[in-house]
Write a structure and sequence with these properties.
The protein has helices at 2-23, 64-90, and strands at 45-47, 53-55. The chain is mostly helical and 91 residues long.
């Protein structure tokens, strides 16, 4: 019983961590984003003038899950950009 509970907790924790790692790609010197499914590395990002790391739009080395995560990231990013552009035009 105790071992089964431990297995369930460990499996849930790893799954939740992997899901968050894929959904919110980031690069930070203090954060190890090496996951089993999505492995984001410094080469996957470009740096803005303000020092912000932005995930590149395409990478031919992506697995199918990384590709889906990258596409969702850019879909969200483009929606935010469109909203800001519309708000600027209205003001």
């Amino acid at each position: 019983m105790l071992f089964g509970t431990w297995i369930a907790v460990v499996t849930f924790s790893i799954s939740a961590g992997e899901t968050l790692n894929c959904m919110y790609p980031r690069y930070d010197d203090t954060y190890d984003s090496e996951g089993f499914v999505c492995s984001w590395e410094e080469e996957d990002f470009y740096v803005t003038k303000t020092g912000e790391y932005i995930l590149k739009e395409k990478n031919i080395q992506d697995s199918c899950i990384e590709k889906k995560a990258r596409d969702k990231y850019w879909k969200k990013r483009n929606q935010k950009k469109a909203i800001h552009t519309i708000e600027e035009k209205n003001n």
